[in-house]
Specification:
There is one protein chain. This protein has 191 residues and is α+β, with helices and mostly antiparallel strands. 36% of the residues lie in helices and 17% in strands. Strand 2 and strand 3 form a beta hairpin. The radius of gyration is 29 Å and the shape is elongated.
Length: 191
């Protein structure tokens, strides 16, 4: 028996499957919007605007830390960003978050200060923010039993959100509320 000889394949017929594969990858990349974006370099930036100066940061941090210490809680200055529901025109304002930790709540209760350029702009914005916090559209963003406390001291607007059903340490939250009631000016929430 003699073996049948295969006719030699042309160079193009040997490359055809590879060319189709490469063309398919190119077409898929083009249709999907190109190659993936490069990984960002350096640490991720916080979404929170930062105060305009280190003195402003130190002042706000010390004010909140003093309130937390007066309530008998430990001070935590780092941690996750806290975004209270604010009217859109105030979302770009810098804010400082300090947490009050207790034995029952080691993560801490967040206490937030929105830093305004001056006391006058804080006084003008405070009633607007108070009204915004009780709008039905805003209340869907927080748990049903959440309540807010607003205080103004100079150019700082202090916001404390308490959710009794989620408080790991209710007595710590109560003592912080007691201390807050002595600081600055109360901004009443409309009912």
């Amino acid at each position: 028996m003699s073996e049948a000889t295969r006719p030699p394949r042309s160079r193009l017929s040997r490359l055809a499957p590879f060319l189709v594969l490469i063309g398919g990858f190119a077409l898929f990349t083009w249709l999907s919007g190109g190659p993936p974006a490069p990984e960002p370099q350096g640490p991720p930036a916080s979404a929170a605007p930062t105060p305009r100066s280190s003195a402003e940061t130190a002042q706000a941090t010390e004010f909140l830390s003093a309130a937390i210490r007066a309530a008998g809680l430990g001070v935590i200055t780092g941690g996750a960003d806290v975004r209270p529901p604010l009217p859109p025109q105030y979302n770009d304002l810098p804010r400082v978050v300090v947490r009050g930790a207790s034995a029952n709540d080691p993560l801490g209760i967040p206490l937030l200060a929105v830093v305004f350029p001056d006391a006058t702009s804080a006084a003008i914005a405070a009633p607007e923010i108070a009204a915004y916090l009780v709008l039905p559209a805003t209340l869907v963003l927080v748990p049903p039993d959440a309540s807010f406390t607003l205080r103004r001291s100079g150019s700082l607007l202090i916001i404390f959100q308490r959710t009794p059903s989620a408080d790991p340490d209710p007595s710590a939250a109560e003592s912080l509320l007691t201390v807050l009631s002595t600081l600055g000016e109360e901004i009443p929430l409309p009912r």
